[in-house]
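Priority: medium. Attachment 1 of 2:
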């Protein structure tokens, strides 16, 4: 069942840059209602349209307040939008915002299909692996 049907709930999410950390810093991402999704879309469009840096910062903080409901394993920092703004990079903030819009509507199986596979121990993907030499017998 898609998570979208559970509006008002949350699910855990680990930033891509934090997946190697132990313990993993984990964010509680909101499962957005239709109204919240519309607000996020409208604010995202406003962010794209404005050149005012201060307004852009205000929009990102407003979006974080909608999509992130809590966190764990953040070095003892209590969750707040201000703390998130101080501890996270802009890229990390947008990763969380995008996760709430995209990830919350997907089933677990759909989300797994979107994740990039890890490279093999040789650090080559199949397409990048050196070709083996062929010998005739």
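Attachment 2 of 2:
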């Amino acid at each position: 069942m898609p998570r979208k049907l559970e509006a008002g709930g949350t699910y855990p999410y680990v930033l891509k840059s934090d997946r190697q950390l132990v313990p993993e810093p984990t964010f509680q991402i909101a499962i957005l209602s239709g109204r919240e999704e519309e607000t996020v879309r409208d604010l995202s469009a406003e962010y794209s349209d404005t050149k005012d840096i201060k307004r852009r910062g205000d929009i990102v903080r407003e979006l974080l307040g909608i999509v992130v409901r809590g966190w764990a394993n953040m070095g003892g920092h209590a969750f707040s939008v201000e703390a998130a703004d101080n501890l996270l990079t802009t890229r990390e903030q947008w990763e969380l915002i995008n996760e709430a819009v995209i990830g919350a509507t997907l089933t677990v199986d759909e989300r797994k299909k979107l994740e990039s596979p890890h490279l093999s121990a040789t650090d080559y993907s199949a397409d990048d692996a050196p070709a083996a030499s062929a010998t005739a017998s």
